[in-house]
């Protein structure tokens, strides 16, 4: 028996403070992510455990856009993009009927039709071993101690503070956001200094194809372009059930959106890498962090055809297919920059990050060491901050997450700054600029082209 492939979020916890099974165990592990209320207050936590999820037998069939298959009655869903139509078909009863319908229109299966059937996927990687909670600060007015850093075992229990961090005077250009002191990735690259050149154009849209975005969050106020919710289902008897839209019900997508474009200098929360841009909420993963390749492709197609220049994919699935490869080639040919997480299994670069034309991103810690969980090989594009990253979550709160999921929106934000300064560039040119200006950190099979360097990328 075969199954449609599921996808999983590429996030893992910054530290384990409490461990247990939350209601509705998911296909992603979000253990001990720190929910930060305010400096000097207790740090809460939430957790979920990994669970494999199988879905009914389904096949994705792609044809030229003119093929008429709806009459077969076996099409579960479909969308068209760049001259082709992608059909979700019931594998048990629909394939034969679909093939017959195509042959009746003069199609030949070996020339005009592709299909793939995919298997189950393991969820996100295991979190680091539990660590005891950090002792409370001696001064209740001081911020809580940083959580253990899984990417830097040489300094357990403490993330080294870059210049301008806690206990040091802030840089003169530092924003007044409440938790900026903990945003080591922004401080390491002195990103606020770039905002005198550009904060990101308001007409530049970065799509977050993920679990949705909490567009009611105060740090994302008036920042979010509402896209579709491709996880919504409604049975014939659920007369009053309404689509809630792309509102986040997990926190993962909201966290990614905050890294890209959270408001800056508003005395609230954090600052995004590109606080001037818009983020588009495209919900393809459910509250458990689960979804399908078909929904992801459909979400990307929607984003690109509705004006997104950059598509952030902080997710991954198991293995490649010719249909997906064709789709991602079409997406990049359409002029979009696709930025995708390499994965958290400490293995080779996963998919869709490994497809040609997709900019794959691994994670480093604040010491510029490769994070212990980060996937890597010679195909890796860039690395970026991905350990102990503070950003927005549900409930108008903030949390530190770790994962290539966090490194990816950092690169998407830098790409948005580059494209805002140079709107005449193509997606390939923006990608090449990021790759060619990266800071070399060592072995390309570990760090790819290196650490994304916002200063150099915007300097020319």
Automatic annotation (TrEMBL):
PROSITE patterns: PROKAR_LIPOPROTEIN, SUBTILASE, SUBTILASE_ASP, SUBTILASE_HIS, SUBTILASE_SER. GO terms for molecular function: serine-type endopeptidase activity. InterPro entries: Peptidase_S8/S53_dom, Peptidase_S8/S53_dom_sf, Peptidase_S8_Asp-AS, Peptidase_S8_His-AS, Peptidase_S8_Ser-AS, Peptidase_S8_subtilisin-like, Peptidase_S8_subtilisin-rel. The keyword Transmembrane does not apply. Residues 119-178 are annotated as: Disordered. Keywords: Hydrolase, Protease, Serine protease, Signal. Residues 203-450 form the Peptidase S8/S53 domain. Residues 1-20 form the signal peptide. The active site is at residues 210, 252, 405. GO terms for biological process: proteolysis. This is S8 family serine peptidase. Belongs to the peptidase S8 family. Residues 125-169 have a biased composition (Pro residues).
């Amino acid at each position: 028996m075969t199954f449609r492939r599921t996808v999983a979020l590429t996030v893992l916890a910054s530290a384990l403070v409490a461990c247990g099974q939350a209601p509705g165990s998911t296909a992603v592990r979000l253990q001990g992510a720190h929910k930060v209320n305010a400096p000097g207050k207790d740090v809460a936590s939430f957790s979920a455990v990994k669970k494999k999820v199988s879905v009914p037998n389904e096949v994705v069939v792609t044809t030229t856009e003119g093929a008429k298959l709806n009459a077969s009655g076996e099409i579960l869903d479909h969308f068209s993009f760049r001259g082709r139509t992608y059909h979700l078909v019931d594998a048990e009863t629909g394939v034969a009927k679909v093939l017959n319908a195509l042959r009746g229109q003069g199609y030949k299966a070996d020339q005009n039709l592709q299909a793939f059937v995919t298997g189950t996927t393991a969820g996100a990687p295991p979190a680091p071993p539990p660590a005891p909670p950090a002792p409370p600060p001696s001064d209740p007015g001081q911020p809580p101690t940083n959580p253990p850093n899984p990417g830097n075992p040489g300094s357990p229990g403490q993330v080294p503070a870059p210049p301008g961090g806690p206990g040091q005077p802030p840089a003169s250009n530092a924003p007044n956001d409440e938790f900026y002191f903990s945003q080591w990735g922004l401080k390491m690259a002195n990103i606020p200094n770039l905002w005198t050149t550009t904060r990101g154009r308001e007409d530049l849209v970065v799509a977050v194809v993920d679990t949705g975005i909490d567009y009611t969050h105060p740090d994302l106020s008036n920042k979010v372009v509402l896209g579709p919710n491709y996880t919504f289902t409604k049975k014939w008897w659920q007369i009053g059930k309404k689509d809630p839209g792309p509102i986040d019900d997990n926190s993962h997508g909201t966290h990614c959106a905050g890294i890209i474009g959270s408001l800056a200098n508003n005395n609230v929360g954090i600052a995004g890498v590109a606080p001037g841009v818009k983020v588009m909420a495209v919900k393809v993963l459910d509250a458990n962090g689960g979804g399908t390749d078909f929904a992801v492709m459909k979400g990307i197609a929607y984003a690109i055809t509705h004006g997104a220049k950059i598509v952030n994919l902080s997710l991954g699935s198991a293995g490649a297919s010719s249909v997906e490869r064709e789709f991602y080639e079409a997406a990049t040919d359409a002029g979009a920059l696709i930025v995708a997480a390499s994965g958290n299994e400490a293995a080779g670069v996963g998919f869709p990050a490994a497809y040609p034309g997709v900019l794959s991103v691994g994670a480093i810690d604040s010491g510029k060491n490769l994070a212990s969980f980060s996937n890597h090989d010679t195909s890796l594009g860039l690395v970026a901050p991905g350990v102990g990253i503070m950003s927005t979550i549900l409930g108008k709160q903030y949390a530190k997450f770790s994962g290539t999921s966090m490194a990816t929106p950092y690169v998407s934000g830098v790409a948005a700054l580059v494209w805002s300064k140079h709107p005449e560039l193509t997606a390939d040119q923006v990608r090449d600029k990021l790759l060619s200006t990266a800071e070399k950190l060592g072995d390309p099979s570990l760090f790819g082209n290196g650490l994304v360097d916002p200063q150099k990328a915007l300097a020319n």
